[in-house]
Amino acid sequence: MGRPHDREWSNRDVSVTLRDGFGRGIEYLRISVTDRCNFRCLYCMPLSGLEWLPKSDILSYEEIAAVVGELAPLGLRRLRITGGEPTLRPDLERLIGMLRSIPEIEDISLSTNGARLPALARLFAGAGLDRVNMSVDSLRPERIKAISRRTTDFDPIAAAKAAEEAGLSPIKINVVVMRGINDDEVCDFARLTLEHEWHVRFIELMPVGEMRELTWDHVVPADEILHRLETVAPIAPAPGPERGNGPARYFAFSGAHGTVGVITPMSHTYCGSCNRVRLTADGRLRTCLFGDEETDLRTPLREGLPLEPFFRSALASKPEEHHLLQMSVGGLRALSQVGG
After folding, report:
1. Domain 28-337 is of which CATH architecture?
2. Which residue, 70, 100, 105, 160, is most buried by CB atoms nearer than 10 A?
3. What angle in degrees, to the nearest 10, is found between the helix axes of 92-100 and 61-71?
4. Which tens digits make up the pLDDT trace of 146-168?
5. Using CA atoms, how far apart are residues 110 and 30, in angstroms rounded to an integer?
6. Would you call 171 helix, strand, or coil by DSSP?
7. H/E element holding 186?
8. What is the DSSP letter of 52?
9. Tell me: the pLDDT tens digits for 272-308?
10. Any idea where the domains of the chain sit in the sequence?
11. Cα separation, 279 vs 286, whole angstroms
């Protein structure tokens, strides 16, 4: 479905003036709009939740748009709205519209658990959202409840179809693979790509903070996942979806409408090509998901100071690679704190 804001996706060279100390161009910002979530997924948030941020600490939509508006002329081109669960933030379509109005921004995506997509997909699309990534860790109703640790009737297939019908494509479905918990569904997820133009990406589990009851024993390496997929049908390397920012390697079954991908933070790091930074819900710039460095942007923003010097200083300290393999997670208690 076409939308008035649709623009031709371009691979043109863009002058990127935002570079870190290793020469990597930074053009992608992940924006957390809330630390709250309606799920308590095993690998993402403690069952009891976290100590929620005070409302006064959370950036307003106008403040988020101001940050992006200052950085976009310097080379920022791609945005992802995350949480917690971003669809819990009221009137999220208003932020989407504000970000869509910034001329330099080419792509706006949303990471969501999908539970509210059937009700909101068309509203978001009309506001200017380009596409969605859904986090789905099971196709089985009872297992969805067990992994999310919530009583829910969430139907991930219906949610993906709602996003597709609203024109929010390419549809990407992210599956965190956990040995002994959901790894027996890998092939079921992959078969979805035979009939649907969806892109299923399998993510290696990242044991983080208070989620460390999930250990290395639960990690299923990408090479093992790909070997299992070969039992469905032969697969071969494939180009990724037309629009994408991430580190996935893509494959496809012969004749399939979609692709399968693997994201490998544990077995094969991809830090050398990192083009992203993260803005937390309370206005801190985090230059590495698992790094220790954070820069307060909220204070200078509210004081009316230019943000460029703070942003460039943060980029200068962006680490060359994460230290997740050494179980150093930069003070994170849960992935939900920074939107993954």
Report:
1. Alpha-Beta Barrel (3.20)
2. 160
3. 20
4. 999 999 999 999 999 999 999 99
5. 9
6. strand
7. helix 186-195
8. P
9. 678 889 999 999 999 987 667 899 999 999 999 999 9
10. 28-337
11. 6
